[in-house]
Amino acid sequence: MEIYIWEPWFFIFFGLFHMHRIWALIDRESYASFWMGIMEKKGVSYFLIMGILAGLCILGIITFIRERKANYLWRWIYIFGGIYVLFDLFAIAIGLEVWQKLLEVMFDITSPYWNIIWGFFILLGTAVFILGIKLMFKRKEEE
Questions:
Q1: What is the value of pTM for the model shown?
Q2: CB 126, CB 19: distance < 8 Å
Q3: Which of 35, 54, 120, 142 has its CA 20 to 30 Å from the CA of residue 47?
Q4: ∠67-56-51 over CA atoms, to 5°?
Q5: What is the residue-wise DSSP string for the chain?
Q6: 55 φ, ψ (degrees, to nearest 5)
């Protein structure tokens, strides 16, 4: 089994993307305002960010399917995480009402669950980032 050159970077990118939510713990209002603005305006920044996320998820899912006979355990993240992210992006893009309400709850700066919600994403991002670093070292060992 081979670790493709882009795979560590996939996890490092997603890890950093989730870890940026430390901002949410530092300044709730600006964080919520920024992301709700991005999602509501659907401008160039929105399509750039969502395009990168969607492209990486599709690449991961294709890799998982192509390597289905000899996959690493961590590649299941491509399936479960990728499907979730693609659904999330799709639901936001079409303005799915139930998803919009969920986002409003998640970005409610008065919520007593704010730190739990965003703390979870930060921990998830940290774990994924560490996985990316480990894959980078493992790939270098294989060369």
A1: 0.88
A2: yes
A3: 120
A4: 150
A5: ----TTHHHHHHHHHHHHHTTHHHHH-HHHHHHHHHHHHHH--HHHHHHHHHHHHHHHHHHHHHHHTTTS--GGGHHHHHHHHHHHHHHHHHHHT-HHHHHHHHHHT-TT-TTHHHHHHHHHHHHHHHHHHHHHHHHHHHHH-
A6: -60, -45
Which residues neighbour 50 within 8 Å (Cβ) at sequence distance 6 or greater? 89, 92, 93
- 31 neighbors 24 (Cβ within 8 angstroms): yes
CB contact at 8 A, 72 and 1: yes
Q: Are 4 and 131 in contact (CB under 8 A)?
A: no
Alpha-carbon distance values, 118 to 3, 18, 21, 70, 123 (Å)? 30, 9, 6, 35, 9
pLDDT tens readout for residues 52-74: 999 999 999 999 999 988 888 99
DSSP string across 71-92: --GGGHHHHHHHHHHHHHHHHH
